[in-house]
Amino acid sequence: MSTENPDSSPPQSSPVVLVVEDEASPRAEICRMVRGLGYRVRTARNGREALRYLSQHPGEVRVVLADVIMPYMDGGELAERARDLQPGLRLVLMSERPEGAPGAILAAYPETPFLQKPFGFAELYAVLAWQVGPPVASGEIRPGRPAFHRERDPVT
User: Fold this and answer.
1) How many whole angstroms separate alpha carbon 117 and alpha carbon 83?
2) Which listed CATH number (1.10.10.10, 3.40.50.2300, 3.40.228.10, 3.10.320.10) goes with 12-132?
């Protein structure tokens, strides 16, 4: 579990994103992207570390960006337990494949946004801005529902 270098951190008013990814290389790349978008970043290698961080720093993290398949607990279980610790906490699940075991977990959490890896800055910004607002003090701005969300809008 780590935090970023304070000298290179985005402003304190920017929302904190907890990146939970068990593989070092993707974790580093995702953190680089999140920081590049102007959000503050914390990391965890698995769900246990993420829950420990959330319990030790209540209210700091605004959104958890978690891999679906990880050691000790999957992203779905992490989502449930994290929301028990912090009701209203935003979560985004990510995986390379939305089928097979990840697909079964994703199907159990249809209200949770999903990013398919690898994703780019535009996709990452869209989901983060939608979940917690832009990386500025006025984090209340919320763009419309992005295309990757799995719920369907009602037809009028």
Assistant:
1) 24
2) 3.40.50.2300
